[in-house]
What we know:
The structure is a homodimer. By secondary structure, chain A is of the alpha/beta class. Helix content of chain A is 19%, strand content 32%. A six-stranded mixed sheet of chain A has the order 7-4-6-5-9-8, with no helix packed on it. Chain A has a six-stranded mixed sheet with strand order 16-13-17-21-20-18, with helices on both faces. Chain A has a five-stranded mixed barrel with strand order 22-25-24-26-28. The longest helix of chain A is centred in the last third of the chain and has 20 residues, at 310-329. In chain A, 53% of the residues are buried.
Amino acid sequence: xxxxxxxTIDEARVKLLNCVNHWKVPVNRLEIAKTLGxxxxxxxxxxxxxxxxxxxxxxxxxxxxxxxxGAGESIPVxxxxxxxxxxxxxxxxxLKSGQCAYVPTGGMxxxxxxxxxxxxxxxxxxxxxxxxxxAAVGSHAARIGEDAQKGSVxxxxxxxxxxxxxxxxxAAGIAEAxxxxxxxxxxxxxxxxxxxxxxxxxxxxxxxINTQALGALAAETGYHVSSARIVKDDETLLEAAVRExxxxxxxxxxxxxxxxxxxxxxxxxxSRAASPGIFTHGxxxxxxxxxxxxxDRASDTVIAGLPGxxxxxxxxxxxxxSWLVRQLTGEKExxxxxxxxxxxxAASPGRTVYQPVALCRGDDGYIAExxxxxxxxxxxxxxxxGYIVIDLNKEGLCDGESVEVNIFGS
Amino acid sequence: xxxxxxxTIDEARVKLLNCVNHWKVPVNRLEIAKTLGxxxxxxxxxxxxxxxxxxxxxxxxxxxxxxxxGAGESIPVxxxxxxxxxxxxxxxxxLKSGQCAYVPTGGMxxxxxxxxxxxxxxxxxxxxxxxxxxAAVGSHAARIGEDAQKGSVxxxxxxxxxxxxxxxxxAAGIAEAxxxxxxxxxxxxxxxxxxxxxxxxxxxxxxxINTQALGALAAETGYHVSSARIVKDDETLLEAAVRExxxxxxxxxxxxxxxxxxxxxxxxxxSRAASPGIFTHGxxxxxxxxxxxxxDRASDTVIAGLPGxxxxxxxxxxxxxSWLVRQLTGEKExxxxxxxxxxxxAASPGRTVYQPVALCRGDDGYIAExxxxxxxxxxxxxxxxGYIVIDLNKEGLCDGESVEVNIFGS
Lengths: 410, 410
């Protein structure tokens, strides 16, 4: 009986990055409307000032602030009406001392003016306007470049594009943006017992979960699933499938066949198909210990042997492969939700524990309730909102201890 | 000068729901692989037991637990080897007292057996197997229906489909799932000053942000953007655009033209185009006060006049229209991240304040730093990770006070 000599997560991550640190993730230039959720591949500078002219932030009267000094609710200052600025047009005139000009919200503030008095505090009288407030220099006025200066960094590489980033790109007149293309990932689910979702099942068979669940997680993570197939526990068939997938993918993820049973052939197949081959055989993680990681230099492909149990496979995918994409694209880690654990929780000495939890509201913040279940049970994950990580050096968690919940899907 | 009589958010939400509580959001039946991120439209029951037979969770020997009573590391129990179960096949035989059978991980446990001893604790000797552990009834065995029982609720209406939900559907043999179809939303951005992202700008013009940013937020929220266009501040043109959009959309969102300036025509247009028309004119929210909400019974359309400032428009869209989708689909509110505010923050009496914040790590959890900026400045939002809500009855926040940060994009 061979014992696995396992890597810690950090050890395995260093080895994995060493294999792929020469990778340059391809970049797509897309219309900004199509970049939602993608990761920006370059720092982008503003090609023009935003706004490109001094804009009023209110409906009001552009004034020279000094002219309004001392004005108040009962003591107006009277200014000569010099004209009205039209929306979307140049002001076309400049203000001299003692003058004012009507400016709509977003309209151009005429040269000479240095503040805007709100229309609510002004009253026109013939060719004059009574101003009932003492305007401070710059009040209700957006400066040229106040939102972004021409040439300044507007958005940084690694930013996930949200609606407001699309807005900022639009504001700057950037119609196309460079975002990382998805890496290509091939999924292979091995097992003689696996039946497709709609197949008629025979005794002893179960439905294949992993190509579906891992495929969705891969897509959520930013991979392109280049192929997904079920292969019997047969070394020849599996090796052929792996070799084929290596030609068309950056990463081949095989689930199943990585424990110590007689039918477990993934390790042999990876050893034969890849050179230098396996660099991690067993991961100090619970669930997910029977994980294999390898690399093939000729095809420049990472090969991951994930556990067959769906919960374990999803955990290891997150920890190694979702993490890898963030490393390569510079995307920051998602935020976790601080909470208190609802019970004592045993750790697993020498292994990092990923414990699914459900979140609920307590009197004082969130409570994280562990969801227990066998690693083969997908209901463990559907009942969970996220997971907590218990460090491999930690002896466990006490009821009420602070934890951080990593929310699934964020 | 007409003063706005504003609704609180809760008042406006009740009125909005009253208009649309007869809406039945259409349902799409999609292949499960295409349901990621969608909202489940019905409770789904498991059509078959998961797993459909008793499965071993380890490589080991199926035993009758009572036979192993008293066994231990140095005192094995010897059991007759009755055969090996093949993966994906029926066991084909049953165990009698004194017998055992090899079962791989995921293999069928033969009738008669009630536990599995791990292969690591067993040793074959000819036609016998030495078992070095006392197996408890049910150990290393998944019961029929343990993950989900036939007929039990597998997933509830309103669940957002994550990778694990797709896995659960696959496990249950459900190949297609009913998810809510997106509601149709038309976007109209009004303003004489608006230039398209790639247009050559003239003095006094600025780039249109709202169709891009609101379009992305609408898509993220689960709307289908049925049309998006820029219209000049012209009552006739705007009314024609609104009437056209009402025929092809469930919601028409107009941004710009809802403040009190001379060019503000949205309210008049909604009043003419819709009957019974406007039900909320002004919202007790900061930013976002100049918001108009209306309804047209004949076309069964909601018409929202959002502020022109992009930050305000995005806030109001989230508060009213993203919220509306969750109400109609039963999706739960996303989790917020508890944090401490980094400074004193003034509230706005009688208005609910939505304050963008950036999150950073403190010694003891997250710190929320307010990002200040004029409502027209999109950089206020690109620098923010989320927002906090200050209740309209609250006088402000003190430095260090606990807040909950709603993360953008979650």
